[in-house]
Amino acid sequence: MLSQVLLEETIPDHQQAVVTRDQSTTWAELREQARAIVNKCGAIRQRRVALSFPPTAKSYAALAALDSLACDIFLFDGHLSSEDAVRLSRSFKLGALLVASADDESSIFEVHQLSDEGVWSGMRTVTILTSGSTGEPKAASHSWESLSRPVRKDSRHLAPRWLLTYRANLYAGLQVMLQCFANRGTLAAAESEMNPQTTAQFMYDTKVQFVSATPSFWRRLLMFADRDLLRQIPIIQITLGGEVVDQPILDKLRQHFPSVRLVHIYATTELGRCFSVSDGIAGFPSSFLNKELSDQVELKVQQGELFVRSPNAMRMYDPYSSDRTGAGDWFATGDLVEEKGDRLYFIGRKSDMINVAGSKVYPVEVERTIRTIPGVSDVRVFGKASSIAGELVACEIVPDSGQNAETLRETVIRVCRSHLATHQQPRFIKLVDQIDLSPAGKTLRTNTL
Amino acid sequence: MISISENQNRIIQVLSEIFNMKSLKVPTLGPETVLDQIGLESLDFAQAVIRMEELTGKDPFATEVEVQIRTLSDLAAMYD
Questions:
Q1: For residue A393, what is the enclosing H or E element?
Q2: ipTM score of the complex?
């Protein structure tokens, strides 16, 4: 799919394909890079290969090249250290790992060859890694077909300019890229480190027309960035996703961008894109249930939980991952919904997941890190409601007797900072005498400090 | 001598705590400090809002009011 788009000749060569803050790459250059990688990496044809995937032109060139080489591709977060990337590659029995070399144009990628490789699927999969509820990464294997099915050709907007705000290696980031490239557009890749004003300036400079982002992204932008600057960005469509979309954010966006098409989308890594709503109202119409929606997606609600059957879903979990459940037929989303009038609203997750500004945090994973610290007797991690970020991570720690409270607190902060991603790090740490359990004997996660 | 209001003082305290927690040098903070320029990440800001709620019993962001904040005193004024 991507290789056809990128290696095809019909796109104007001089047009920008990928724009970042420091670099602009034309379609001709991207095509050249992709061809160079195909030529250099013939040895990894039809193999299981990991690609470290920061949001740069090189990454997209490499993705197209690996598609053209018929590889099973595993996308790794661009922030992963090379030791972790190698370790992860081994755990999935991959044959090679491609990491973009910093600035060296002559050899665009370092290829780490690995041994003891698993069996190639024979059908060019693209596997997305997300953290699972137990902390083990889940490896959702899509095909190029399942990834491209939701992509719409839009004849009204030729060469659209899309803003990428999602992580490039995850489902939403791939969708934005495919939607953009399938329409021969320009992808403006924002970095998550950018502050709101810089982001707004970047959006203005790149003249983005399509913006796909979380509600948290917009809350922050509207709060801190210069509104006059925001109004001058030629936005045609705002697509919200990744978190529950509430009415206030929809109203606020409508107010600031009166003529923009406002869409919110429901998608998951495993199920792919399920449905979208564009009437500016939170939730979705009850009439969506129990019938075939576009892309032949079907929805039903059982005991308050949303179930989906979708041809956009992944093919399966990778056979070498710990979770080997097949994609199956109906898929329990874990999202709880409530019917009010003729509308269904999302009310929360069935699981304990904490949603920090659109990023998933699993308490078990954070607890595991904190439990390794000497002096910690017990710990419980839970989400604390935030009007800004949805939730933030909080924890209660029972110290071993005789521990100095301040020293322990400092150690916990230090260890979490070096072992966990920013959004996973507890922002609130309370030392307590004991941790309350639910009647079933499970750690309570829902109450607050 | 510039006078600092009670809520401005609380915000300075809360932000200092957050910089300390991150082992970062606490920048000079005053009413005219531009919040976008002191290296405050979005989650740091979310953390500050929760801490301010603990100190004042108020969360002005919970109601999704229309606000635009530039300086520390703009933020403090929301708690007044």
A1: strand A390-399
A2: 0.92
